[in-house]
Design goal:
Number of helices: 3
Order of helices and strands: EEEEEHHH
Length: 134
């Protein structure tokens, strides 16, 4: 098995480190609280201890801020989706609803909230695409 590591600040969409750990599939991972050491277990019962480089284990202050902002944006986005689901459920309760659309999201409301979300966080986005562009 291979252990893939991502650096969300610099290269979010591609693996920054891929290390072969074992000829067997990996089954468990435990990372030290400081992030410098990782214990990886495989299906043969072997545990391998790895030391990660400082660039992956020690975040800079700017990385901490940007990652925190990213998590805040995603939290807001999740709250918006939950609010849309609750609104849809309330409307369904008022009007009897369509049994086949349980938990369905109103597309127009979703796009309006998505547009408002991108405007709030100053990220150009394409409403309805589910992804930021830029």
């Amino acid at each position: 098995g291979r252990l893939d590591t991502w650096d969300y600040f610099y290269r979010m969409n591609e693996v920054s480190l891929s290390q072969k750990i074992s000829d067997y599939s990996l089954t468990s991972l435990s990372v030290q609280s400081q992030g410098a050491l990782a214990a990886v277990g495989d299906s043969n019962g072997v545990i391998t201890l790895m030391q990660l480089c400082d660039g992956l284990a020690q975040p800079t202050s700017i990385e901490k801020n940007h990652i925190g902002q990213m998590f805040d944006r995603e939290t807001k986005r999740e709250k918006n989706l939950e609010a849309i689901k609750k609104t849809a459920a309330a409307k369904k309760g008022e009007h009897g609803g369509d049994p086949g659309r349980e938990g369905a999201i109103d597309q127009a409301e979703y796009e309006a909230r998505e547009k408002a979300f991108f405007a709030e966080v100053n990220i150009p986005g394409e409403p309805g695409s589910g992804a930021a562009r830029g």
